[in-house]
Design goal:
This protein is mainly β and about 250 residues long. Helix content is about 10%, strand content about 45%. The chain has one domain. The strands form two sheets. Strands 1, 6, 7, 8, 9, 10, 11, 12, 13 and 14 form a ten-stranded antiparallel sheet that branches. Strands 2-3-4-5 form a four-stranded antiparallel sheet, with no helix packed on it. A hairpin with a 4-residue loop joins strand 13 and strand 14.
């Protein structure tokens, strides 16, 4: 039994190190590395705290760390490293690195935040690492809290559920399909609203709620799956279908 568990653990580490979508290990806010530590990455905080001047710091055994200038994410209020790497087929130094850019907004009685995932090509050759173009940008997270009670009547009608809550989250994983250069990916997004009847684009304050409404429910219009295939001609991922407009969840 112990031998079996050890073998399973070792197999799991090997899969993380060699799979098309590899996990980066390490503490948040510090360098994150492939499981075999052949490559480590970091996105240090900028002086202003936003996207201007952000760099990707690349290090590998036996080579000096190098800082590569990231694209100008002008509207980003935060920039962070996505703790995954996507491997190219047949080239051990070629990857797609994920960068998460975020925005926040505060308003009376609530606020919101959202982030986007950017996949950017990385040539991680130890002697001369460099960044290439952006292969994909998709919505990644969203969280909003919006005040809905402005009187005692509102509190009564809404059973004291005085905030509408909207959440959005996405995941990416390797998917079946031939890999031209980078693997085919599955992209899944899930959007939820609380109370279940709430819609950000509507006046929910005038709604009389029932106890059955006081649950978090998925919004079918913004809960979806897509397949992403890499096109070598454009060096970008193409969606099998367009994304729906879910700005109610992804714009703070």
């Amino acid at each position: 039994m112990i031998v079996s568990l050890l073998w399973a653990a070792a197999a799991g580490v090997a899969a993380l190190a060699s799979g098309p979508v590899a996990a980066l290990t390490g503490e948040e806010g510090k360098s994150r590395c492939l499981p075999d530590r052949s490559l480590c990455l970091d996105v240090p905080p900028t002086e202003e705290g936003g996207g201007a001047g952000a760099v990707l710091r690349v290090s590998s055994p036996g080579a000096e760390a190098v800082s590569l200038t990231l694209p100008e994410f002008d509207e980003a209020q935060s920039v962070a490293l996505w703790p995954r790497l996507i491997r190219a087929k047949g080239d051990p130094d070629r990857y797609l690195v994920g960068i998460l850019t975020g925005q926040t907004s505060m308003y009376s009685g609530g606020g919101g935040s959202a982030s986007q995932l950017h996949l950017i090509e990385l040539d991680a050759a130890p002697k001369a690492p460099r960044l290439g173009g952006e292969a994909l940008v998709v919505p990644w997270t969203g969280s909003l809290l919006i005040r809905a009670c402005f009187s005692e009547k509102d509190m009564k009608d809404r059973l004291e559920a005085c905030h509408d809550e909207y959440d959005f989250g996405a995941t990416i994983a390797a998917a079946p399909g031939s890999a031209a250069v980078f693997p085919t990916l599955s992209y899944r997004a899930v959007a939820t609203a609380f109370p279940r009847t709430s819609r950000r684009s509507e006046d929910n304050g005038a709604t009389t709620l029932k106890r059955a409404d006081l649950v978090r429910a998925q919004d079918p219009a913004c809960t979806y799956d897509r397949v992403l295939r890499y096109d070598p001609a454009t060096s970008r991922y193409e969606l099998d279908r367009p994304l729906p407009d879910c700005s109610d969840y992804t714009t703070p």
